Amino acid sequence: MSTARVLVRAEHDYEVLIGRALEAEVVGAVGTEPRRVLLVHQPPLAGRAARLREALGDAGHDVLLAQVPDGEAAKTAAVLTDLWSRLGQAAFTRQDLVVGLGGGAVTDLAGFVAASWLRGVPVVQVPTTLLGMVDAAVGGKTAINTPEGKNLVGAFHSPRAVVCDLDTLATLPPDDHAAGLAEVVKCGFIADPRILELVEADGGTGARDPGSPVVAELVRRAVEVKAEVVSDDLREAGRREFLNYGHTLGHAIELSEDFRWKHGHAVSVGMVFAAELGHAAGRLGDEDVARHRGVLGALGLPLTYRQDRLPVLLEAMGRDKKTRGATLRFVVLDGVGRPGRLEGPPTELLEQAYAAIA
Ligand code: GLY
């Protein structure tokens, strides 16, 4: 397949590359001038990191490999401090560069190290999960967690490039792949109905197969949606909030499950809830609500949550950092591709929508 290139407009414009066997593109994005490169990765990607180190070394760069703990354990102040020490000891300058190779946790961490060191050094993001490719690594949000919550410390720091090598998706567990597809479907509902049609055309078979051309098209389309939205609203003053479709209830489910649920699974239930809420508010028709269950269900994503949990979820939504002021805010649809806001819906409406997903 040929490599797709999607432009993102930010403080500096950058490209998201989508294709296969893209190691040379990562080296190209780092540049021809010799520099120090901090290559951040997690243990399962040690082999790939070693190969990339060699390729970068062959191109004249001096690579520091930084293996960080697996999963969300990478996104801590302790890991960040350790990386800062490594940069200090290597006398890392603004001419040097960070590479984040991994899932969303690694690209969030690598992005924040790059944002904070010397008030900002360049970062090239190399997401290796579907969620990382279509969401975390694109758009310049970087963060670490604190004991009080996820992503509470962070910065906007746009990458120099994002390189999505679809070959890396083959090793992803099917559950993680499906969870990433939830964010792809989200892009379908808020902006690009062709994404929904691609899933509907074969009952989700192509979408579930990481090697299929359908996945390549889905990733490109989802990245195009995200690129368009963040190019228009980098700092989330307006439209970027629409990318949180399904996330208000989704975050609350993640919290109530102590993060044992995958993000995409929680967002899947959150989107069905948001569709029901839009329906209860008289804004979204029956067929579009049914389409949520059809598409997400075809991908093996969850559509329901425990009946007794509404009070706990309401409490969690109230505490969500994205809540502005005292009222709950939801992204709802006025039709496929027509996102809008619903602020402070009455409790009866929330109960009605919840009853439909419980
Ligand atoms: N993940 C939502 C955003 O990047 O704004």
What does this structure look like?
The strands form 3 sheets. The chain has a 7-stranded mixed β-sheet with strand order 1-2-9-6-5-3-4, with helices on both faces. The chain folds into 2 domains: 4-171, Rossmann fold (3-Layer(aba) Sandwich), CATH 3.40.50; 174-355, Dehydroquinate synthase-like, alpha domain. The chain is built from 14 helices and 11 strands. It has helices spanning 23-30, 46-58, 77-89, 104-116, 130-136, 174-190, 193-201, 205-208, 213-232, 247-256, 263-280, 286-298, 310-319, 347-357; strands at 4-8, 14-19, 36-41, 62-67, 97-102, 123-127, 141-146, 149-156, 161-165, 329-333, 339-343. Helix content is 46%, strand content 18%. It is α/β, with parallel strands linked by helices and 358 residues long. The model has no long low-confidence stretch (mean pLDDT 96). Helix 10 crosses helix 11 (263-280). Bound molecules: glycine (GLY). Glycine binds at residues 135, 139, 141, 240, 243.
Question: How would the blueprint of this fold be written?
Answer:
Elements: E1 4-8, E2 14-19, H1 23-30, E3 36-41, H2 46-58, E4 62-67, H3 77-89, E5 97-102, H4 104-116, E6 123-127, H5 130-136, E7 141-146, E8 149-156, E9 161-165, H6 174-190, H7 193-201, H8 205-208, H9 213-232, H10 247-256, H11 263-280, H12 286-298, H13 310-319, E10 329-333, E11 339-343, H14 347-357
Parallel strand pairs: 2-9, 3-4, 3-5, 5-6, 6-9
Antiparallel strand pairs: 1-2, 7-8, 10-11
Helix pairs in contact: 4-5, 5-6, 5-9, 6-7, 6-9, 6-11, 7-9, 10-11, 10-13, 11-12, 11-14
Bound molecules: glycine.
